[in-house]
Amino acid sequence: MALRRSSLRPLSGRHEFGGFTTGRQDLYRVDDEQRALAHDAEGGHWHPAMNDARPEDPPVISPAIGANARPTGACANGDPLGERASVGANRVRVRVLGPPAILGVPEEQHVRPQALEFLAYLIARGGSAYQHEILGDLLPEPPHRLAAQRLHTYTYNLRQIFRSTGGNDTYLRLRRHHYTLNTDAFDVDLWAIREAMIASQRGTDPAARITALRRAVAAYRGPLAADTGYLWLARHQQAVAHEFVTAAVTLAEALADRPAEAIAVLDIAARHHPDNELLAAAVARIRDRSS
């Protein structure tokens, strides 16, 4: 029986593909995955290179605040805002507060700006979104098929970055046009704030609640995706700013018997949002009590 000749031409050495330096086997895998992603964009079915999960696998449930992620750290002595939080080993570290960034990316790899925007979008939404939502917010102008192909290109770029940064793990799943981040595989500043806020609300011990609130305030480095101008950003940025201000005011109220510390917390918050009325009112209340 005659063997069918492969459509892949043998290549040797290393090659450049989409900003990555690859070997021969990697180049073949790139071709396979790109074909699979294009197939999915046209309404095809599961392909092992397209999706990290098989059809029989249970879907990943991604809570809106990444509640199944590991703890991000605790308040240490001499660290009033809990800034020396520990980071889980092999977790991909992402900042979306202030200018967004994936930390620890090797110099030889390129993070597409649109891929980073896609990641920030998923994180702001709690870790998941359907394809039609993503295309409507991030790629509203191109025809649907072209927009879907671009989205798959960004997905592939992110997966490559995640694997080079955090090792072999399941980071981003695509199933039935639903994109889901594995929250256990990431250390994200925004999710750290939300986890700390939940811990403070559930806690009954005043000291533990203050520790959790300090963590929440410390995680804030600036407005969500600052200075990016993303078209979808405004309402998410406002919501995150409100979460941060609420955490700062709640912490200041918990420190009411220590007015100097309370004012210091509010001063830190006001550097990020100097015109916020809630912060100004909280400062006035604490000063009135201490006078």
Spans with pLDDT under 50 lasting ≥5 residues?
A: 3-88
Widest beta sheet: strand line-up = 4-3-8
Helix content: 40-55%
User: Structural class, from helix and strand content?
Assistant: mainly alpha
Number of strands: 8
> Which strand-content bin applies to the residues?
5-15%
Number of domain modules: 3
Give the distance, in angstroms, between the N- and C-terminal Cα atoms: 95 Å
Averaged pLDDT, please? 77
Outline: elongated
Describe the secondary structure blueprint for this structure.
Elements: E1 15-17, E2 20-22, H1 24-41, E3 92-95, E4 101-102, H2 113-124, E5 128-130, H3 131-138, H4 144-166, E6 172-175, E7 178-181, E8 186-188, H5 189-202, H6 206-218, H7 233-254, H8 259-272, H9 277-290
Parallel strand pairs: 3-8
Antiparallel strand pairs: 1-2, 3-4, 5-7, 6-7
Helix pairs in contact: 1-4, 2-4, 5-6, 5-7, 6-7, 7-8, 7-9, 8-9
Short structural description:
The chain has nine helices and eight strands. It is mainly alpha-helical.
Please tell me about this protein's structure:
With 291 residues, this protein is mainly alpha-helical. Helix content is 47%, strand content 9%. The chain is built from nine helices and eight strands. A three-stranded mixed beta sheet has the order 4-3-8. The chain has a three-stranded antiparallel beta sheet with strand order 5-7-6. A two-stranded antiparallel ribbon has the order 1-2. A hairpin with a 2-residue loop joins strand 6 and strand 7 (178-181). The model is unreliable at 3-88 (pLDDT under 50).
